[in-house]
Amino acid sequence: MRTAFVVALLIAAPVTPAFAQFDSGQISGFVRDAQQGALPGATVTVVNEATGNKRSTVTNSNGFYVLPDMPVGSYAVTVELSGFKKFMRTGIRLTATSQIAVDAELELGSLEETITVTAGTAFVQTTTAQVARTIETRQIQELTLNGRNPIYLASLKPGVRGGTIGTFDPDSVSNGSFSINGSRADEYLVTIDGAVATRTRSSGSMLGAQDVDTVEEVQVLTANYRAEYGRSSAGQIRFVTKSGTQQFHGDGLENYRNAALDANQWQRNRSGDPRLSNGPDPYSFNQWGFHLGGPVLLPGGFNADRGKLFFFWGEEWIRRRDTPTSTATVPTAAMRRGDFSELLSPSNPFFGRARTITDPLTGLAFPNNIIPANRISPNGRALLDVYPLPTPGFQQGTSNWIGTQPRHSDLRKDTVKFDYVPTSSQRFSARIGYTPWTFNDPFVNGTDRVQWAWSRPNKLSAASWNSVLSSTLLNEFTFAFNSDGTGTIDLDPDCGARCDRATYGVNYPYLFPGTKLAPGKIPTIRITGLTTLDADAYPGAWAGFVYTWSDNLTKVIGNHTTKFGFVVEHSGQDDNIQFTTASQGATNNQNGEVRFLDAGHPQSTGLAMANALLGNFNDYNEFGAKASTQWVATAFDAYAQDSWKAGSKVTIEAGVRYS
């Protein structure tokens, strides 16, 4: 196990969420007297308990009221009607996409008399057929989340299979790789405050791990979600972030791990190298940050009531350092000189049986399994020399080389959010998120002959303007932007000469000279009986983007809540990273791929390693300049939906969406 040390610094009080924009919910209900008669004309006021912001409406002829597009948060509902006691219900938790019913029964009396009911349990959604589950703030705060990556909170909900809450994945762009209601892992959508957070180029990844302490709640839509939530053929995971409140709140954190209590790996214990066998991989993990939210107070008395302008600011850093171990099967020093006599032993560790090499010129075995020096191809010898030499005293199965390399990962999570409520009928919100991530990959092909340095500057922002045009007419306009570029994958400069083909004498001319992004990178080398040195498809670069404009109009007509809206999405990718996959017989390595097999060449020795030394390759593949592709697409969606409260226990929903 790894040791862990966590420190939490409390500033005033824990960060308490107020309202979170973009994803919203709905509160509705019936107001009746003691005989269950409808009470039209009652004033219903809903107050956000953290910010004091309020919305009001009046019950219709059926005693029904509805307040759509309410920001996520905790609310108090007050009902007033002349001749009746005031009704108040507090502690009502409204989550994203939810529709909760808060009914009121008024008693005869004076308005100065108040009946107060405190909500003690979560409301069960009975007014919508939408199947959705919510992980709320309290659950997020109380759960131990390994690595503090909130995407894995989705695994707590029924219908979600795949990654678990115990997955240690603090610094990645994974979308969790879930299956939601049986769907594939690349078919669901991830959003943050309503903005698309799924990466343009790959729907199996998202724009950076989120800071769990900035998350108000995680909403998982699994089935039958309304027409306004489109764009995915499977489910949706929707993050709602925190906002500031009327009071200042903040926290600080430090999460530290090291290898002090780790057991050593079996292969390191068997390495025969005291540097490896005397202890586990060096390991250091630091995760620290702070969060602060509250009202924005400016000179001149602006926002003196602390109810108009709020901010929330979160910062988190991750610094991970370790030294992974890798093993490989490599040619011995004698083999590189043409001496394969060790393979004559039936117990040789390469094949576990005797192997004799044949001279292709005579058809007879090479004497003592040794190739004369004057027959050795310089580039064939150089390709074998690309492999590291065996580690003295180390043998695990066929593996005769073991090595370690330093690995690093650095991630920063910036979150800034502002909420402005100039009047009770207007609300503006804006959020900016930036999660730059740099890391290296020291063992691309099992050895240290190719090492990548990655840079992924993920950005995501959104802004929303909500207008209450009347007690029955509301509008919300949202603009969102995300980008994962310019991202780069380059040869790690720390690898230096070790990753340069000239170091080993590989100097055959390219078929397409002058076209290589990294001319010194080694070719991919496939030799039967040895570890494949796959030099991979990079370097490369990309820059994806998604711009989204959407508008939603909600109209309450009697017991009907109708909603219309459209979405325009402009997305694209500037891509210089093609040909990332290839089957054998082709290549994804711009610098070439050479393959040596035991058979298939007219001058084969019967042993792939010996064929390599003679230069008798089975096939060689290479391609020229990578095209820089720039694709752009614009999508348009429109929808209409209606929720009809046909009775106190009957809700009929219908919707249609065009994409």
Question: What distinguishing features does this structure have?
Answer:
single chain; about 650 residues; mainly beta; Immunoglobulin-like; Ferric Hydroxamate Uptake Protein, Chain A, domain 1; 13-stranded antiparallel beta sheet; eight-stranded mixed beta sheet; 6 helices; elongated; disordered N terminus
Molecular structure report:
This protein is mostly beta strands and 659 residues long. Among the domains are: 19-121, Carboxypeptidase-like, regulatory domain (Immunoglobulin-like); 131-241, TonB-dependent receptor, plug domain (Ferric Hydroxamate Uptake Protein, Chain A, domain 1, Beta Complex). It has six helices and 33 strands. The strands form six sheets. Strands 1, 17, 18, 19, 22, 23, 24, 25, 26, 28, 29, 32 and 33 form a 13-stranded antiparallel beta sheet that branches. Strands 2, 3, 4, 5, 6, 7, 8 and 9 form an eight-stranded mixed beta sheet that branches. Strands 10-15-16-13-14 form a five-stranded mixed beta sheet. Helix 5 (378-385) packs across helix 6.
